[in-house]
Structure prediction request, 297 residues.
Amino acid sequence: MMGIDTSTSASEHLSLDLPRQDQQREAAEQTGRGSTQAARIKGPRRRQATALALVPPLSVAVVLLSLWYFGSAYWHINPLFLPSPADVWQRLLDGFSSGLFEVNALATIEESLLGFLLAVVIGLPLGYGLAKSRLIAATVQPYLAAGQAIPAIVIAPFLVLWLGYTLLPTVILCMLVVLFPMVITTALGVRTIDRSILDAARVDGAAGWSLLTAIEFPLALPAILAAVRTGLTLSITGALVGEFVAGGNQGLGGLILQGQHQYDTPFMFATLALLAALAAVYYGLAWLLSKLAEAVY
Prediction:
């Protein structure tokens, strides 16, 4: 009798568990179907948002190109001041076919990236020091302000006088252009970290390097990434200023000066278009770097 009762209770438990398992399985399937449907809906919406985000800049580009075309073709503007888009396009093709644009674009890229990396190596630690130490802030800030007040084009002749017509003056000048906004943005990002979070981390034993890498750096990362994006774009400006003063005929800045001396406006516009494309590539690389850092941290 006892054996019969045990088997009966076991069968009853089994019969009760089976509906529960079926319900759990159905709930999991419904959850999976719901997430799949949400992903299917989210995908087109994301593509639609991306397409809508491209509409305004493309519309502005179309308007500007139309005004440029009509101004050069029908409004009788002197080609010395405004060449036609066809002439600029032809000079752009000629520059690429001869290899002139590639060589000088690589020179500008080398100068700007070296100056940017030098600014990162100096600017990020300096910005952190300004935020964490009143002594460093009181010592360095007056010189940063003075350096920012002096135009870079005024400093360039002194660098050429001291270092000669080499790559180094242009790299240093590029670094000086990038350094100030990078330092200030980094210091602001570190200063705006919530103090309660830092105090809680110190209570848990974080200090020194562990506090910097695990708490302060991730929290200040948005400001640091903004500094990197700004600095990478400004590095082109610093490279051009250096090429105007110290680079001779090297780089895209040298090509603009060459076109100016020869009154070759289509060539100048073609070089300017290449500079705009290079700035867009830099901005895209900085955006990818920001997304990668956000995914890691």
Remarks:
- Residues 51 and 281 are 19 Å apart (CA to CA).
